[in-house]
Amino acid sequence: NAEEKAKKAITDAAMMAEELKKEQDTSAHLERMKKNMEQTIKDLQLRLDEAEQLALKGGKKQLQKLEGRVRELENELEAEQKRNAESVKGLRKSERRVKELSYQTEEDKKNLLRLQDLVDKLQMKVKAYKRQAEEAVGEWDRVRDDGWMMDGWMMAG
């Protein structure tokens, strides 16, 4: 009995030792896997950090490019606004000049009409004076002719 118990205890102890060995092997294997995983995680974290740094650098470069382009566009916009303001200024100046010329043209038309009216009146006066002069010359010729006739009669008489 005692011998059987001792054999059983030895067999149980051997089985337990074998199970312990299996558990220790499994534990060692799991520990190695854990260390490998931790190293993989560290490597991946480093790669991620590097990728983030590259992305930040690339992002900064891209941002700088975009900021430069924005500045260029702002400068172009400012120049275009200045050109536009100059164009508007020129247009207003031209509009004022057109108004001035229109007003001057109207004044010139009025003056021309006044002058034409004056010319017409003066031509009528010239015609009247010419007629009067012709009448006076005719009268003079008649008076002179009559006077000579009288002189002739007086001499004859």
Automatic annotation (TrEMBL):
For this UniProt record, give its keywords in alphabetical order, as a comma-separated list. Coiled coil, Cytoplasm, Motor protein, Muscle protein, Myosin, Thick filament
Q: Which GO terms describe its cellular component?
A: myosin complex
Record Pfam families? Myosin_tail_1
Domain of life, per lineage: Eukaryota
Location, primary (coarse class): cytoplasm
The Myosin tail domain sits at 3-143
Q: Where in the cell is it found?
A: Cytoplasm, Myofibril
Keyword hit for Coiled coil: yes
Q: Which residues form a coiled coil?
A: 3-139
InterPro entries reported for this sequence: Myosin_tail, XRCC4-like_C
Q: What is this protein called?
A: Myosin tail domain-containing protein
Q: Which organism is it from?
A: Chloebia gouldiae
